[in-house]
Amino acid sequence: MIGRGEAMAQLQFGVIGHKGRMGQALEQAIDEARHSMCIGVDAGGNVGPLAGQCDVLVDFSAPDALSQNLGAARVAGIPIVVGTTGLGEEHFVMLAEAARTIPVLQSGNFSAGVTLLAHLVREAAARLGPDWDIEVLEMHHRLKVDAPSGTAKLLGEAAAEARGIELSANMESGRHGQTGARGQGNIGFATLRGGTVAGEHSVIFAGPEERLTLSHSAENRMIFARGAVKAACWLIGKPAGRYTMNNVLGL
């Protein structure tokens, strides 16, 4: 394993969820970056006994496995990057607790472009008044199981943070039938699924007689895998705490 004081050479990655789409992309990205995958764990597997062989864990598995995976990283005393989507409030409590003893980097999206998009959304939401309605539109492939996507929520959180509101209390999604007028100050979400779309996200600011749209298109999920590998390399040697892709990009 690589110590904090050593030059960063070849790192040993533990990939949780390595047989999934993102896991396969991660394996390729790790190889491209000239690092190695020391272990790969999937549903039903236990990363705990093997985590000590790794420099860093990267988790793209399922929400119900997060507690076990964080525990393995804590016992091994190594950083963990979490890209699992569909997390609830209880999972964020787990992340905060783990970050007291190890470096934890969690994100709904590891693309540099999406990270910058969230930054721009935050800037726009802070500067445009409450008469500008905010809507988040996303589309993914037909096999995606959670909605809205982790990226859509990341963008919604950026807008909500800029306006000083809680997203969970000001979120509109799944509109159908006689919904009534749009809630003043709410952030809307629309979800599309189909084909093999890697990821399309737009944040629409709809003001009086004008609109501003900020968008990002992912052409291949390798951008997320490469971003996660970059984040993992960056996380090595950092003190215990919570980190995001903003930290990696210096935003």
Automatic annotation (TrEMBL):
Q: Which GO terms describe its cellular component?
A: cytosol
Q: Where in the cell is it found?
A: Cytoplasm
InterPro entries for the chain = DapB_C, DapB_N, DapB_N_CS, DHDPR_bac, NAD(P)-bd_dom_sf
Enzyme Commission code: 1.17.1.8
Q: Which residues constitute the catalytic centre?
A: 140 (proton donor/acceptor), 144 (proton donor)
Reaction(s) catalysed by this chain's protein: (S)-2,3,4,5-tetrahydrodipicolinate + NADP(+) + H2O = (2S,4S)-4-hydroxy-2,3,4,5-tetrahydrodipicolinate + NADPH + H(+); (S)-2,3,4,5-tetrahydrodipicolinate + NAD(+) + H2O = (2S,4S)-4-hydroxy-2,3,4,5-tetrahydrodipicolinate + NADH + H(+)
Instruction: Briefly state the protein's biological role.
Output: Catalyzes the conversion of 4-hydroxy-tetrahydrodipicolinate (HTPA) to tetrahydrodipicolinate.
The entry describes its oligomerization and partners as: Homotetramer.
Sequence similarity: Belongs to the DapB family.
Instruction: Quote the protein name from its UniProt record.
Output: 4-hydroxy-tetrahydrodipicolinate reductase
What taxonomic ancestry is recorded?
Bacteria, Pseudomonadati, Pseudomonadota, Alphaproteobacteria, Sphingomonadales
Q: Name the gene.
A: dapB
